[in-house]
């Protein structure tokens, strides 16, 4: 329980969308919004943003360290070595109170926000309130008529998310092989670096990318291009394919590679024709997860996107700030249901893979 609370603390302290949308209007600022303000408002305060980023990294890393310490300091094993049967404990009279409490929490945390988004997207005017006469599809019509560049934002997010999924999938497969199978010198450091973005707040990664690539000595100019946003998504989401690929490689027998080499296959042929088919179910699930997260990513999109490039998340954020919540909520509905569909596909693929294994 303590470890899970520390994990919630880390995810909360690096959360950007909620304090930027709700807190800024009431004058309530946190570390992440302070970093964004120093990078977005003139005059730019890069040293101040760097100091706040370091402070945020220290807090996040300290919480992750204590979380890891709490999880790993004790281990429990079966004394007999035999698996014990799972015994369900009946709640008795507490069954319905527990069920109602769960439904209440689910209704407040999930149903109410989604219903509010739907109500705003389907309302002709905010002042009209919730009434049949105020129901309208004009915000969706404006969305698909490309008002304020909505279709470009949608296509940009889908394209960047697809690119990030493919790039992280390729890198994740190669890194997983190097860490688990090749055992090259420094493989532990490589494994640590591939997982580091999970412990780093997203806004800190974005600040680091800006400071690293906003230099004139680079032979290729990545800063202020769409490639910068693709690089940010890749850095933030690479841990997912790496973990999935590493877990799959650990479950594969090394005899597969030995048999391929005996039959005369080189590394590339062995990797593509032997390992990749066995790895593909887990890798596809990881790539779908990357696609779903990248298609709605906000903090990196706001920080490193070049001028004139809009994604789904920045479009919604901009419409909310400009006083056009209806159009922004219509885009949110499209993003919510598309992401939900992808997560359902991911779940079905994961269950099919598990059923195939057992």
UniProtKB/TrEMBL annotation:
Family: Belongs to the binding-protein-dependent transport system permease family.
Residues annotated as signal peptide: none
Membrane topology listed for this record: Multi-pass membrane protein
UniProt-annotated location(s): Cell inner membrane; Cell membrane
Domain ABC transmembrane type-1 span(s) in chain numbering: 154-346
Record GO biological process: transmembrane transport
Keywords: Cell inner membrane, Cell membrane, Membrane, Transmembrane, Transmembrane helix, Transport
CC per GO annotation: plasma membrane
Name of this chain's protein: Spermidine/putrescine ABC transporter membrane protein
Highest taxon of the lineage: Bacteria
